């Protein structure tokens, strides 16, 4: 990269519409270090993406967020399908994610029956992660290991040391009774990533985590598309392995 930094005439490039936004969007490639936040998942925008064509409008979407399925059956919420909504439900400006416990203001997978909401990024976190500072892989649980305890003991995140409500998701090592929140506590964002973005070295753990998440998200979406196809009762058996690989 580097020398050929010519910008194509924007008028020559096709625009696309997305139901989440009133203006047309155009293909956009984000570089690491741009520090752009995706308006859908609210995570850093890296790789193939879309940008609003209005220069004053800071609306960006990952390609993967652009392509999110409108409905998903999620293991964390087996009784009802979750519906993708593009802005916080309940007429509020934010929602609380039932996976990580943090607020969101972008897209959510939502169950209106149960008022269950999950960041789209949290919906596709890997089922197992490794972290540099723990010797065992951590497994994703859809509630804390203390759920249902009658003695009132609550689980404490081993990274931020805060009490976790029993229905939050946890990355957990049973052997060591070690566990973390699934979002910021799982990704080192606050430690290495912030200042080392240009170096590329100090942020390697974080970006590795991000790319793992991206890859997992892509795989999960391929699976979701498959599920949707299965559910529709068509195309069964005609699955092509590279079908979901847009990037
Ligand atoms: Zn996104
Ligand atoms: Zn716009
Ligand atoms: Zn979340
Ligand atoms: Zn529900
Ligand atoms: Zn935590
Ligand atoms: Zn362990």
TrEMBL record:
Residues 1-23 are annotated as: Disordered. Gene3D superfamilies: 3.30.60.20. It comes from the Eukaryota. InterPro entries: C1-like_sf, DC1. Pfam families: C1_2. Residues 19-65, 75-123, 134-185 form the DC1 domain. SUPFAM superfamilies: Cysteine-rich domain. Keywords: Repeat. Residues 1-14 have a biased composition (Polar residues). PANTHER family: CYSTEINE_HISTIDINE-RICH C1 DOMAIN FAMILY PROTEIN, PHORBOL-ESTER/DAG-TYPE DOMAIN-CONTAINING PROTEIN. This is DC1 domain-containing protein. It comes from Brassica carinata. The lineage of its organism: Eukaryota, Viridiplantae, Streptophyta, Embryophyta, Tracheophyta.
